[in-house]
Write a structure and sequence with these properties.
Oligomer: single chain
Largest sheet: 9 strands, mixed
Order of helices and strands: EEHEEEHHEHHEHHEHEHHEHEH
Keywords: c-di-GMP, Membrane, Transmembrane, Transmembrane helix
Number of strands: 11
Bound molecules: ligand C2E, calcium ion
Distance between the termini: 67 Å
Protein name: cyclic-guanylate-specific phosphodiesterase
Organism: Thioalkalivibrio denitrificans
GO molecular function: cyclic-guanylate-specific phosphodiesterase activity
Number of helices: 12
């Protein structure tokens, strides 16, 4: 049944109680997670599909909680977005990712790019572009050779087209590239896409993973590639797991991707080893 509680309508079902309790516990634990050192960034290479050459890294947030153990971002990011904590977390992610790409570039990976995921809540918070400007200045990122790429999801963008567009414009003035994440899962219209200040489309992994088995997925991916070419946008395929998927993507005209076939997201030490090996060989 339903009961009115402090002006809100609350529905009671045992499983829901359970879910609400879990949500609240995660929410509580999230506050203080950074201070307790429970957050870390993992990095997944973005590569040329033919040569495997690493051209960028995507920073992915990891949370290892003292009570719950590892909690997936798909579970805790929405909670952090809801409470507003995503702003603090997001600032930490940006700062840590920028520090890391500078370190890697200084050690010889001169052209490496660093992709960071943004939620709209962060992007639309007042003063966000100012904070990004500060981070860019603190780490002395060169606007003419900017390593920072920001990823926003297609669905997030179409929720508030005008505000998002304006916010992205301010970031682009800093030399930062913007990639449209999970492309194909939302319904961005052609005219929207044309107005958006984005540099690349990231083909969602659900399409990539159906490429070999589903002709409809192949047609979808082909249309996204044609669309990107028409709008002069770059392309990145995510979730590439098999050589067959890689070959199909290249055949269709997509040259850049990421996925378990090349490397899983991994902690910085593991990436350092790969880097040390490739620099010494
Ligand atoms: P995303 O940005 O679409 O990231 C790609 C997800 O696919 C990552 O999941 C990655 O680990 C996973 N992945 C990579 N290669 C493969 C593959 O070959 N096969 C399969 N099946 N999966 C692959 P993850 O790390 O669990 O992150 C989930 C989502 O959480 C991300 O999706 C992103 O939307 C969000 N997220 C992660 N870190 C951050 C962050 O720092 N800030 C914000 N706002 N969101 C983040
Ligand atoms: Ca992403
Ligand atoms: Ca994605
Ligand atoms: Ca996703």
């Amino acid at each position: 049944g339903a009961a009115s509680h402090a002006g809100r309508c609350v529905f009671y079902a045992p499983e829901m109680d359970e879910q609400v309790r879990e949500y609240q516990m995660l929410d509580n634990e999230l506050h203080g997670a950074l201070e307790r050192g429970e957050m870390a960034l993992h990095f997944q290479p973005i590569v040329h599909l033919d040569s495997g050459e690493v051209i960028g890294m995507e920073a992915l947030l990891r949370w290892h909680n003292r009570r719950f153990g590892p909690v997936a971002p798909d579970r805790f990011i929405p909670i952090a977005e809801h409470s507003g904590l995503i702003r603090t977390l997001g600032d930490w992610v940006l700062d840590t990712a920028c520090a890391q790409v500078v370190r890697w570039r200084e050690r010889g990976w001169r052209k490496l790019a660093m992709s960071v995921n943004l939620s709209v809540r962060q992007l639309l918070a007042p003063g966000f572009d100012e904070r990004v400007r500060e981070i860019v200045m603190t780490h002395r990122l060169d606007p003419d050779d900017m390593p920072l790429v920001l990823e926003v999801t297609e669905t997030a963008v179409i929720e508030d087209m005008e505000a998002v567009s304006a916010a992205l414009d301010r970031l682009k003035r800093l030399g930062i590239a913007v990639h449209l994440d999970d492309f194909g899962t939302g319904y961005a219209s052609l005219s929207y896409l044309q107005q958006l200040p984005v540099d690349a489309l990231k083909i969602d992994k659900s399409f990539v993973q159906s490429l070999e088995s589903d002709p409809v997925a192949e047609n979808l991916v082909r249309s996204v590639i044609v669309l990107a070419q028409g709008l002069e946008l770059a392309l990145v395929a995510e979730g590439v797991e098999t050589p067959g998927q890689r070959d199909k993507l290249m055949e269709l005209g997509c040259d850049v991707g990421q996925g378990y076939l090349f490397a899983r997201p991994q902690p910085v030490d593991a990436v350092d080893h790969v880097l040390a090996d490739s620099l010494s060989s």
